[in-house]
Amino acid sequence: DRESEAGGVAVVGLGRFGGQLAGALIRLGHEVLAIDRNADLVQRWSDQLDRVVQADATDEDALRQVGISDFRRVVVAIGASVEASVLTVLAMVELGVAQVWARATSEKHAKILAAVGAHHVIFPEAETGERVAHLIVTRMLDFIEFGDDFAIAKVRVPEALAGKSLSQVRPIDQYGVRILGAKLPGEPFEYASDSTVLRPEGILVVEGTLNQLQHFADLT
Ligand code: ADP
Hints:
The structure is a single chain. By secondary structure, the chain is an alpha/beta fold. It has helices at 2-5, 16-27, 39-45, 60-65, 82-94, 107-115, 124-137, 166-169, 171-175, 210-217; strands spanning 9-12, 32-36, 51-54, 73-76, 99-103, 120-122, 140-145, 150-156, 178-183, 190-191, 203-209. 37% of the residues lie in helices and 24% in strands. The mean pLDDT is 93. The protein is built from 10 helices and 11 strands. The protein folds into 2 domains: 2-123, Rossmann fold (3-Layer(aba) Sandwich); 138-217, Alpha-Beta Plaits (2-Layer Sandwich), CATH 3.30.70. The longest helix has 14 residues, at 124-137. Strands 3-2-1-4-5-6 form a 6-stranded parallel sheet, with helices on both faces. Strands 7-8-11-9-10 form a 5-stranded antiparallel sheet. It binds adenosine-5'-diphosphate. Adenosine-5'-diphosphate (ADP) is lined by residues 12-18, 35-38, 41, 56-58, 78-81, 84, 88. Adenosine-5'-diphosphate is lined by residues 12-18, 35-38, 41, 56-58, 78-81, 84, 88. One of its GO terms (molecular function) is monoatomic cation transmembrane transporter activity.
């Protein structure tokens, strides 16, 4: 019904990316309608998702028939065929879907998707490649980058600072980063204060620019 589909997400393309995405949405408790033109894939997914439909998603009539306009959020997860991806996004936009998320596989593909009206363009290979490069060459454990190079990172307590309190370290003055919180293995996360001690086995949540964070994480 309309009420429940408002919280649901339609995913087009059950390839490696779309399949992972659909599975994650289900685990997060959302209803998923999946569309793929491949009958074998539709069969394989049919008992895991709420609804799996075999259809050509570039076909507006077919999309109307599955009731796509009842969905506020659609993800076009087709990668290999730029043509199918672009035509599907176009059809979704024309049918008035409020939030069309589209997967790009190249810079040019991303540009076209934005031009035909995708509201969000995601480029998993580029994003993951860039992320993993940072994780490989620095001692950051994880990070989220916001615009303008600003980021929040998860880092081990840098060797050079182990055992010191934040009032001694003065991270903003010394390194330009702010320590938001600390966590020891097996203990809950705690917001940082001047008296927080950087225990050697601790994990920190730190904000700053990516450069500052990398420098901070690598202090030995
Ligand atoms: P991945 O890299 O995630 O495996 P692919 O591009 O190989 O992505 O897979 C995309 C999926 O989208 C495939 O399962 C394919 O059958 C499906 N697909 C491609 N074009 C259409 C279309 N026009 N309508 C419906 N599904 C499509």
